[in-house]
Amino acid sequence: MSSPAPLVITIDGPAASGKSSIAREVARALGFVYVNTGNMYRGMTWAVLQAGIDPADAEAVAAFAPQAGLSCPVAEGRTQLHWQGRALTDEELNSDPVNRAVSHIARVEAVRTALVDAQRGLAALGGLVMEGRDIGSVVFPDSPYKFYIDASEAVRAARRSAQGHADQVAERDRLDSTRKTSPLVIPEGARVIDNSTITLQEAVDQVLAALRAAGLVAA
Ligand code: CDP
Ligand code: CDP
């Protein structure tokens, strides 16, 4: 018997566009598991830094990636990020050194191979809302439920700084959009939502309305 097709709502977009906030609310409304793939790249970056590896040394990062010691158990409706058996905190995952290095780590092909395999494996859990940069384009390109969340650069920088993070969102966007492997693109078939001037609730409602229109009965 073949396994059922994955049921994954994909949400992609640039840094601080609102992907995580929207994905978390949509997952809650549907009873799906929320997966923040950015945290997986951030966890890999944390592990690289802890191992004393230079994030710019792509060869050393590639050799380290397959045995980095990361896992993603589910708790409270979302995947957590564990490293060497303990949960990494939001402070660690969003720390300045991680913000600075993560888009360099994410360019390394062996890193992407390891994390994309793990992301596809999560579909065995049931319905997912998965957000990142390449979810609709590379990880689950056959999903009928794809979204791309955008917002102006000024709005994104302001929202990130309101969250209390010093984060070079423009520089990360440049690196993420220009890399050779799985660059940030609007996935084919994705519905684009401009989240610059609407409220978070309005953005969530637009996603849920589109899912209803697409026949996802649970919505
Ligand atoms: O929250 P924010 O949008 O600022 O970033 P994130 O989603 O936590 O992702 C951090 C970084 O991980 C991104 O800037 C990308 O370099 C990388 N990433 C990726 O390459 N592919 C993904 N599917 C998710 C994140
Ligand atoms: O995951 P990503 O980096 O794309 O964005 P986020 O971590 O969800 O951060 C977006 C921030 O902007 C959060 O503090 C949201 O509450 C806020 N926000 C939003 O996402 N959408 C709006 N329409 C208004 C505010």
Characterise the protein shown here.
The structure is a single chain. With 219 residues, the protein is α/β, with parallel strands linked by helices. The protein has one domain (8-207): P-loop containing nucleotide triphosphate hydrolases (Rossmann fold), CATH 3.40.50.300. It contains 10 helices and 10 strands. The protein has helices spanning 19-30, 37-50, 58-64, 90-93, 96-105, 109-121, 135-139, 153-162, 169-178, 200-213, and strands spanning 8-12, 33-36, 70-71, 74-75, 78-79, 82-83, 86-87, 128-132, 146-150, 191-194. The strands form 3 sheets. A 5-stranded parallel sheet has the order 2-8-1-9-10. Strands 3-6-7 form a 3-stranded antiparallel sheet, covered by helices on one side. The model has no long low-confidence stretch (mean pLDDT 94). The protein binds cytidine-5'-diphosphate (CDP) (2 copies).
Number of helices: 10
Q: CATH topology, anyone? A: Rossmann fold
Ligands bound to this protein structure? cytidine-5'-diphosphate
Q: Percentage of helical residues?
A: 40-55%
User: Can you count the beta strands?
Assistant: 10
- The best one-word shape is globular
Query: Structural class from helices and strands?
Result: alpha/beta
What number of domains? 1
Strand order of the largest sheet: 2-8-1-9-10
Intertermini distance: 28 Å
| CATH structural class | Alpha Beta
SSE topology string: EHEHHEEEEEHHHEHEHHEH
The amount of beta strand, in percent, is 15-25%
Summarize the structure.
With 219 residues, this protein is of the alpha/beta class. It has helices at 19-30, 37-50, 58-64, 90-93, 96-105, 109-121, 135-139, 153-162, 169-178, 200-213; strands at residues 8-12, 33-36, 70-71, 74-75, 78-79, 82-83, 86-87, 128-132, 146-150, 191-194. It has one domain (8-207): 3-Layer(aba) Sandwich (Rossmann fold).
